[in-house]
Amino acid sequence: MVWTSRPVKTLKGAIRAPGDKSCSHRALIMGGLAEGTSQFSGLLEGEDVLRTGWAMEALGADVKQLGGGKWQVTGVGRKGLSQPDKVLDFGNSGTGSRLIMGVVCGYPITVEMTGDASLRSRPMNRILTPLRLMRGLDTAGPDGRLPFSMVGTDDLRAITYSPPQASAQVKSAIMLAGLAASGTTVVEEAKPTRDHTERMLRGFGAKVDVARLDSGVMRISVEGGQTLSALDAAIPGDPSSAAFLVAAGILSPEGDVIVEGVMSNPTRSGFFDVANLMGAHLGAEEAGDAAGERLINLHAGAAALKGKAVPERLVPSMIDEFPILAVLAAFAEGETIVTGAEELRVKESDRIGATVAMLRANGVEAEERPDGFAVQGCAGKVPGGGLVQTHHDHRIAMSALIMGTAAQNPVSVDDISMIATSYPDFLSHMTELGADISEG
User: How far is the C-alpha of 387 from the C-alpha of 374, rounded, in Å?
Assistant: First the structure.
């Protein structure tokens, strides 16, 4: 099902950012574990998050979707998780599947897990290795690929673990397992990753200690045996989804786009920081807070961009935004270089390869590197005219469609169905701004 984005002169308007996907997953998981009934508003209702809600319901929580982003979750509390009577199918959701692996291994239940073809190709040993050290068991093969079963235990033991890769999913799975472990579980991060799990656990009443050691390592610890308490919270706007709207405003010849209610968190702000380094001059104003996160309204207007070398220190805080950054780089003057982003190789697709292929298909000179890529910018004159193979990756699809709004010729993608996993309102929001995106 090919969809095409055509060049337009003006993108203008104000859009409320959709609920943050990372926070939405965690709200449903922690609400499902808590004692009492939690109320959430602004929850992202994309397919990935819905599957997390279904999984928690299968594990014994009472999960109700009330409409308009409002949800009510009554957790299992001290009773603990129940044995599910079906396989938990996570579709394309890496976050939901990996976090729930950590959750279930601390209960004496056996949970069969699977996903779609993309998720079944993604590495899970990075999660399974520390969980095995905690005495969790699984039926995974040597490659650690789904499908397999998690075999939980009520004798989980705390560990101190230093993940070999910068991954908030690994950290979060270990911390969630640590809630049910005996002792204090510690994760030591050489590179800080997004800290939504730490923040939200505190919101649910858990004690979580975070300290920066003299070496620069972040030390996060959680004591086992804690019971979470229900929480009423609004979900902050998703910076990763907002990045597409912001990029559209920057690239539009007469761009004037405001994205409201965006989470402002230093572990998620890398894309906006780099866009400003390239000359975007984004405006930001305070917009309150939600679920312990500061909110801002972002203003993006047309800007002439300059290529830059992306500072490696910002890579973990923009790991999901590199495809849309590559689109900015394509329109910039000069070269943009990304290094230290090898984690992109194991996303929904090989995002390094898919991103470079997206650019080349539309007349942009780009080079694939082992841990990143280099883009020779077209100084605002991206040829376009290509058909992009999305490889079932929502961020590649949305990035290519944003490119088409400002390229010299239309840009097409081979599939848009997976966009619903993270941003189900993307097409309607882009249409509201004035984009010309349609099937065919």
Answer: 21
